[in-house]
Fold:
Amino acid sequence: MATAEKRVVRDGQTFIAATRRPDGTYRKERRVREGYVPQDEVESYESRGARRTREIAEMPVAGAPPKAAASQTAPSTEGMTKAQKKNAKRKQKRQEKSSAPDGVESVTGAMADVSVSGKKT
Structure:
C-alpha cells in the first residue's frame, strides 16, 4: 500500500481504516501499535559508502565554473593549456568545415561545363 493510510484512534487504540482494493473488494480495518510505520513507507537503508558516493557525485568540481555560467558563455582560451587551445582550434575548424557548402554542389557545377563529343580520337 504505497498510498497514505488513514489512521483512526478509537478507545485509545490506533487503527488503519478499511480500504478498497483495485478489484473492488475491501480490506479489513487493522489495529496497529503506536508509532507503527507500514513497510511500504519505511525509507530504504543506504550504507555509508553508498551515501558518500552519491554525495561526492553531487559535489561541484573544484575550480570549475558553475554549470549555469559555463553553458551560457562561449569557451574562452583564457586559462587553457597549450594543448587545450590547439584542440579548441581544431574543433572550431571542424565545425566550420561541416557548415561549409557540400562538395556535391561544386562537382555538379563543374559537370555542367563539361561537354561530351561523339567522335573517337
Remarks:
- The CA atoms of residues 15 and 31 lie 4 Å apart.
- The two ends are 91 Å apart (CA to CA).
